[in-house]
Each structure stands twice: as structure tokens, then as C-alpha cells.
Design goal:
The chain is about 65% helix and about 5% strand. By secondary structure, the chain is mainly alpha-helical. The chain has one domain. It has a two-stranded antiparallel ribbon. The two termini are about 15 Å apart.
Length: about 170
Amino acid sequence: MYLKVGGEYADRELQFLAELLNNLDEKVVEVSNLIFKSVDPESDGLTDRGEYFIGVGFSVIQQYLTDTLTLTGVSKSRALDIGPRYSEEFTFISVVNAAANWWKHSAEWVGQETRSRLALQTQKIVVETAESLDYPLSNVLAKLLGTSEITLSALLPNLVLWRSALDTVVRENA
């Protein structure tokens, strides 16, 4: 949850999130450097390790999204369609949310035919964004950032833009 006084935001959760993402970035950068030096990063377990830290990052961002919606009266489905767009079809936030859901639930979907609307939407967004099922979270992060030099904290400016757009919607509906 955030507060807005005048034109300034008081957003303690964003500060906590930034601190945690910076800590995760240390691990992501460490793994990226090890991948670069490795002859076989997959066999060395480095690619899975990187996916793990990135997945955790997407999940804590998703928690921030949920916290931010507290007391706004804006539904999560509406909130996922607010703010900067990643593509014509998806907002930046909807991609981040799908990546978090992928991280948390994809193991449930292995070898299963799913009819869950959440599962199908998550899979669609992640597959279309990542363009590969090999290390999809790393690929989603790289696509969101537009670079192969990936850090989770680089997502923060778009989260701030989303929060601002959300606040505009809240004030228009007040």
C-alpha cells in the first residue's frame, strides 16, 4: 500500500522491494558471470540457479503488486491492464505477474493438460514473451529489459510508472 501526499508517494513496500531486488541482483550477476566463464553452464547447474533467483524476484514483485492494490478498490484483473505496455497485447505488469505465476506453478503443469484459465493465460504470456521454453524466466526478464544484461532492479522504473497509473485510476474513480 502506498500513500500520496501532494505529488509525492510514500511507498515503504517499494523501498523494501528495491532492497531485496538489489540483493537478488548480486546473485543474478554472480550467476551470469559464472555462466559466461563456464564451458557447460547447464551441466554446471548455473542456468537453473539463475532461473531460481529470477523466479524469486518475479514472485516478490508480484507480492508488491498485491500490496499496492490494498484499499484501492481496483481489481487485480483491472490492475494488470494498467500502466506501461510491453506489447500491443500485454502490459508490462501482466508479463511480470505471469512470470511470477509461472515460477510458482509451472511444475504443476508438467505433463498435464490444463483447463485452468489462469494456467492457460500464464502459459500464453510467458511463451509469447520468452519466445522459448528454455529458461523462460531469464528470457522474459531479458525481453522486458530489452537487453541480455539482466537485473531485477531494472524493473523498478516500470513498477513506479504502473503505481502512478494505478493512482490516476483510483483518483478518477473516487
